[in-house]
Amino acid sequence: MSAKKPPDLSAYALETRLTLAGRDPARSEGAINPPIQRASTLVIDDADELYNTPKKTYALEGMAVQDALREALRAIEGGAGVTLAPSGLAACTLALTTVARGGGELLVTDAVYGPTRRFCDTVLARLGVRTRYIDPRIGAGVAELISEETCGVFLESPGSLTFEVQDVPAIAAAAHARGAPVLLDNTWSAGVYFKPFEHGVDLSIQALTKYQAGHADAFMGAVLSATPHWAQRVQQTYKQLGLGASPDDAYLVLRGLRSLGVRVERQSASALRIAHWLEARPEVERVIHPALPSHPDHALWRRDFSGASGVFAFALKPTAPERLKAMLEGYALLSMGFSWGGYESLIVPSDDNIKRSAAAPRFGGPLLRISVGLEHADDLIADLEAGFARLKA
User: Fold this and answer.
1) Strand order in the sheet with 221-225
2) What are the tens digits of pLDDT across the range 71-119?
3) What is the C-alpha to C-alpha distance for residues 374 and 310, in angstroms, rounded to an integer?
4) Which domains does the chain have, with CATH numbers?
5) Which listed residue, of 231, 259, 281, 295, carries a Cα 20 to 30 Å from 389's Cα?
6) Whether the predicted model's global pTM rises above the 0.90 cut
7) Tens digit of each residue's pLDDT (9 = 90 or more) over 42-82
C-alpha cells in the first residue's frame, strides 16, 4: 500500500495547519499522535554510522514526538529550522549564547524579560560579553549604536511587562547593514500574530510554556531560525551545551498546539473587551494594550501584527498599598502567578519586576499585568469590578 502524500500546509488557514502539522501516520504506525519515546541510548548496528553521520546517535537530539513538534512550529511561524529547549528562558539563553562572543557587545531592548536581563548581566558578563540596553522605541536610531563589536540585537515586541512595540523592520535593516543578527522574543504573539522572518529577524524565540502548551502543565521553548546557516549554528550550540527537550513535555505542547488557534482567538477577543472596559473605569490611570488606539505604538502594531494576544497591562491611579493588597487577594477568578497564556486568567503587580537602564517608564500608580484565560469575559469583568470595590473600601 502506497503512503499517502502529505498535504501542502501553506495552502491552508492557520487552524487547519495547526490540526495537520507534524502528523505522520507512517512515523506513528497509523496513530494520529506521535509516540512518546522515553529514551537515552540508541542502538546502532552499522559501525560506519557511529560517527560523522546525519542519523541520530543519541536520544538527546529528540525522537518522533520532538520531530513532530518541530515540524508543527515551522508550519506556523516559518523559518529554516527549529531547535527545542527545556524552557522559554533556555530558548532565550540558547539564542544569546549562539551569537555572543568574548569582547563583543549585545544591544538588548530595555523592555526585555527579567530573567533574560539577568542572564546578560551575570553569565554573559562573566564571559566578557557586554550588554547595552536600548530604548525599545529607538527604531532606526539603533544604527548609531551598532559597531564592529556588536554581536547581536535582541528584541522583545511588545515588552512582556510594559508592552512597547518595537519597529522590528527598521531595527533589522540597521543591524543587517552592519552585519549584526537580530533576535526576537516573539512569545506574546504566539508565533501567530507576528511573522518575524517577514520582518528581518534571524532568530525567533518562543516560550512554548505559554500559549502553545496552553494548560499550565509543561515547560518548553524553541528557537526558530530564518536560514539554514542560523539553524546549524543554533543546533551546534544546543549540542555543545548539552540541552535536551523532554518527550513528555513535547507531547503536551504538541497537543496544546492543536487548539492554539481557537484559544488565542477567544483570549484575544476577551482581553480587548476587558481592556476597553478598564479604560472607562475611574480607578484606572491608563490601559496599556497595543490594539487600543490610545497605545503610543498602536500604528506600529497595526502595520506589523495581524492580531493581539490576551496579555496586557493597566496602571491604577495612586492608591494605598493595603488597598491594592485587598483588591488582589480577594479575586474569585483571577489568580496571582508569573506565567501567562494558559487557559486560566492571571494578574500580577509588575512594578517590582521592572528593571530599566535606558528608558524608565512612568505609569502614575501601580502597574498590573493581566493574562486573560478562557473564562467568560462577563465573569472576569464582574471579578475585576468587585476588586475595584475592595480598592475603595
Assistant:
1) 81-85, 221-225, 203-207, 182-185, 150-156, 105-109, 130-134
2) 999 999 999 999 999 999 999 999 999 999 999 999 999 999 999 999 9
3) 10
4) 76-258 (3.40.640.10), 260-392 (3.90.1150.10)
5) 295
6) yes
7) 898 888 888 988 888 888 888 899 999 999 999 999 999 99
